[in-house]
Amino acid sequence: MADDKIKKMIHDSEHGMTSIVKTIVRFVIGIIFVFGVYIILYGHLTPGGGFAGGVILACGYIILTLGFGKILGLKKLSDKVASVLDTAGVLVFLIIGLAGFTGGYFFLNFMAKGEIFHLASAGTIPLMNIAIGVKVTASIFAVFIALSIFGKFVSALGESSEENRKGSNEE
Amino acid sequence: METYLLVLTVFMIIGSVIAIETKNLLSSVISVGVVGFSLGIIFLMLGAPDIAITQVVVEILILVILIRATISTDNTAIEKHRDNLPIVASLIFFGLFLLFSYFAVHDLPVFGEPVMKVASRYLETGVRETGATNIVTAVLLDFRAYDTIGEATVLFVSIVGAFVILRRQGRKGRGEKDVEKVGILEDEDIKKNFEGF
Prior knowledge:
The complex is a heterodimer of chains A (about 170) and B (about 200). Helices cover about 70% and strands about 0% of the residues of chain A. With about 170 residues, chain A is an all-alpha fold. The longest helix of chain A has 26 residues, at about 125-150. Chain B is about 70% helix and about 0% strand. With about 200 residues, chain B is mainly α. Chain B is extended. Chain B has helices at about 1-20, 25-45, 50-70, 85-105, 120-130, 135-145, 145-165, 185-195. Chains A and B meet through helix 3, helix 5, helix 6 and helix 7 of A and helix 3, helix 5, helix 6 and helix 7 of B.
């Protein structure tokens, strides 16, 4: 089963870094994701927003990839899913902007404002924050994938690409 | 407060000079990190937590990616021989920049003084008009959403470019040769050379 394979991969010393790193990553990863989602969702109430939260989420995926190896990282968020999410984020943002035409002009905040200091307030702003957060998560992780796993650029710099290329051909 | 700013700015300048001059790539990357984190602290002290969060997080990300990219490479030593012309030219332009900025800065308002001709309107009506209590997000996603969509487009295009250039599928196989024909390709050539696109 695939789950067994992943479980084996988690404890396997061949994939990723040492067990120290893996243990720490296992403790920290949940907190990182929760914090990233918090920063995105509460972007209209407290400091933060879609971009910062998205970068935090992308850092979570990157730490997974660095700690547990590229196979697990790509399993959690593969490059194809990442590019789809990237595109979807931009599209959703644009659609929300275009939906403002229902009330008059581009990027009109056409939804109900709600009560101040409540999570469901400020109309379209939280939705835009979420769209930007998804987009930034996917795209930053995609850059990391492209630079470190596809390995064309990195391999041109050093030898580590050689094993990258071998590994990627095996897939 | 301004003393702190001065110290941090000098620290940043030292860090960037080290980043340029050092011969070890890893030290250079770490010096770049010093510059970024100092900038984050400066943003915090100036009362801009939004930008500070973004700055620190992005700096961590850049450090991770750059260290991942450079840690396996050997010391690519900078060439000792240098042309004098670029140095002289940049010194001259730096002097010109200082000269003009001396005149330009005179007309600027005092640092940190709340002039806020445009921003005061946002502060007064922002919460009422948008419902968002974080005024930075309100400006970013409501008053100035055009800027944000431009930013998103820039990010999107750069990611597409990175994927197209760096992805694996676009590469040639071992036995294949470069396409020598110029102009419109035959169907077979396209099939042969661009399989996997």
